[in-house]
Amino acid sequence: MKTAIIPARGGSKRIPRKNIRLFNGKPMLAWSVEAALHSGVFDRVIVSTDDAEIADVARQAGAEVPFLRPKSLADDFTGTGPVITHAIQWLREQQQPPSLVGCIYATAPLLLPSDLQQAAAALVANPALKFVFSGCRFSFPIQRALYRNAQGQIEPVQPDAIPKRSQDLPETFHDAGQFYLGQADDWCNGLAMFAPHSFLQELPQHRVQDIDTEADWLRAELLQTLLLQTPRSR
Q1: Rounded to whole angstroms, how far apart are CA atoms 88 and 101?
Q2: 165 has which bridge partners?
Q3: Out of 20, 59, 174, 213, which residue is the most buried by the measure of CB atoms under 10 Å away?
Q4: pTM score, two decimals?
């Protein structure tokens, strides 16, 4: 049983009710539900939430909500791993054990079904892989990052990188925060995600956007609008 699990708690602080606020005319999490359903990768698409209103919206979008997540797994300090593990364990207790498990964030409106298809194919093609996750290239060499010291003065994080040419510095990537695919046992065993046994599936920079502020929200809406108008740019 291949199962997508979409974590969507009710207590978002920076953007209240972010998971069900309308994003380009649909509740935010509906975009993630639709991407999972349309990918054809999963037998089930489940939303893990502690919130009855979010549960109703998720069902209307086409997802299952077979349980409400405990409040102890819905605070500001709960990581993704325990949420996914809880869902897997609940399914196992119901005699519905999943095999492949995809964690898809509820705030990933730029995610495409084809991204999930490619990730699943990568796992099949290389049995040594434990996880496939979405990543994106940094647009500027992070080795040249600057910071302000205690006196407010500017200093380089890595002084020896400042005089080097960009092309002489290693390329660096960051987690795109859209999806993570792996086997249920590896999720439950707490296997590290960002490790040599994982594959970073690179997404283009124009399809990666954190959504933590109103400015982030607006930019993501504009990006999605442009992408929907020009499919070839996806």
Answers
A1: 8
A2: none
A3: 20
A4: 0.94
